[in-house]
Amino acid sequence: MARSARHAGGWGLGATIGLFFVIALALGAIAGRVPAWVALVYAVMSGISVLVYGLDKSAAMANRRRTPERSLHLLALLGGWPGALLAQSVFRHKSSKAGFQWMFRLTVVVNLGVLTWLLWSRSGISLDRLLLVGWQALHSVITRGQ
Question: Which key words are in the record (predicted)?
Fold first, then answer.
């Protein structure tokens, strides 16, 4: 089966954008313009996203229990969207489902809005508060899925 034009380059535009974003954050952290913990959160959440997408693709192919879409969206919202873009391209998973993509893009926009607010506001939000809110949201999604 021939690969689509969207995947002809191997990675696709989405994966390239996600990788560029993570590299830009890392360079921003090295230059002292972005807190190092922000770059670390995106890198870790992106890695988790790639892993979860890969496991979900494997489960789909084996007709096993799947990862709920809301969990994939929450990972993206919490900073894993660059890894999710990479995984969608590499695994060809969830990349053509219109409803999923609409919500995924919304989570990316919201995530970038929050990041922009964090980097340019003088709100003084702390890492521990941000992680607590993220953990509570993740826990809520996980416990509802059981």
Answer: Membrane, Transmembrane, Transmembrane helix
Q: Give me the percent of the chain exceeding a pLDDT of 90.
A: 24
Domain for residue 94, yes or no?
yes
In terms of C-beta distances under 8 Å and separation of at least 24 residues, what long-range contacts does 42-48 make, across chains too? 42/79, 42/80, 42/82, 45/75, 45/78, 45/79, 45/80, 45/83, 46/18, 46/22, 46/79, 46/80, 46/81, 46/82, 46/83, 46/84, 46/86, 47/83, 48/75, 48/80, 48/83
2 in any annotated domain:
no
Quote the domain boundaries for residue 140. 11-144
- How far apart CA 83 and CA 27 sit, in angstroms, is 18
pLDDT tens across 35-68, in order? 888 888 999 999 999 999 999 999 989 999 988 8
Residue 5 placed within a domain: no
How many independent structural domains does the chain possess? 1
Looking at residue 2, its pLDDT comes to: 42
pLDDT score of 5: 40
